[in-house]
């Protein structure tokens, strides 16, 4: 469409006027009697992309961007900021939600094509700061005091030395989520799977129980 409608025009139908170009597709309709009529159909496509050449994978990535996927919402016992003990179980987990664990679904449209994507975390790899890594296939189990000194049934670790020699006296903990994103296209052939990672960090102090003699 020349000229392009101004920002805020109803013609944009919610599309970003700065990143999108509006086209008009003219279609001729024929009746059984041979009469014809013409109607115009608006088509939106990202700047620099012609509607007919739109790659659905571009829309898949736009849908993923809308999800605002993040790293784990880290939970640990002992809690970050408190002190655990050598030889005592450490529990790790993430609070679950659309942006921290999934499932999360979003769509993106342009050029008569709509792509719908659904994302969910497949695993979380915990780097514990002592050279160990722990791979957990689920969100982990949140710790409650009634569990006492039991090890986590789903996602845990045990430190064998104190964190006294680490910077700040704490082990740096990094949790990296792998998001698996399945997508499918409506209006064009296409579909597949994307993988993305997101990372969060915490720190935990580990001390040693000292025996006092008399």
What's the short story on this structure?
The protein has one helix spanning 56-67; strands at 20-30, 36-46, 73-77, 83-85, 89-95, 104-110, 113-127, 133-136, 156-158, 171-186, 191-207. The chain is mostly beta strands.
Looking at CATH, the homologous superfamily of the largest domain is Immunoglobulins
What class do helices, strands and sheet pairing give?
A: mainly beta
Helix content, binned percent? under 10%
Unreliable parts: none
Description:
- With 214 residues, the chain is mainly beta.
- It has one helix spanning 56-67; strands at residues 20-30, 36-46, 73-77, 83-85, 89-95, 104-110, 113-127, 133-136, 156-158, 171-186, 191-207.
- It folds into 2 domains: 1-53, no CATH class; 55-207, Immunoglobulin-like.
- The strands form 3 sheets. Strands 4, 6, 7, 8, 10 and 11 form a 6-stranded mixed sheet that branches. Strands 3-5-9 form a 3-stranded antiparallel sheet, with no helix packed on it.
- Strand 1 and strand 2 form a beta hairpin.
- It is elongated, with a radius of gyration of 26 Å.
């Amino acid at each position: 469409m020349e000229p392009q409608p101004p920002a805020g025009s109803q013609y944009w139908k919610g599309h970003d006027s700065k990143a999108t170009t509006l086209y008009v597709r003219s279609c001729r309709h024929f009746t059984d009697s041979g009469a014809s009529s013409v109607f115009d159909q608006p088509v939106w496509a990202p700047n620099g992309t012609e509607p007919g050449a739109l790659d659905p994978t571009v829309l898949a990535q736009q849908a993923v961007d809308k999800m605002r996927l993040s790293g784990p919402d880290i939970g640990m016992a002992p809690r970050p900021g408190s002190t655990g003990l050598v030889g005592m179980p450490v529990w790790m987990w993430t609070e679950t939600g659309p942006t921290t664990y999934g499932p999360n679904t979003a769509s993106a449209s342009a050029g008569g094509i709509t792509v719908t994507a659904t994302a969910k975390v497949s695993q979380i790899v915990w780097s514990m700061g002592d050279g160990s890594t722990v791979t957990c296939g689920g969100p982990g189990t949140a710790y409650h005091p009634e569990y006492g000194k039991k090890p986590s049934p789903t996602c845990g670790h045990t430190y064998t030395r104190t964190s006294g020699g680490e910077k700040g006296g704490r082990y740096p903990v990094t949790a990296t989520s792998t998001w698996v994103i399945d997508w499918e296209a409506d209006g064009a052939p296409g579909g597949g799977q994307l993988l993305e990672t997101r990372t969060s960090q915490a720190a935990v102090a580990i001390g040693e129980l000292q025996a006092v003699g008399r």
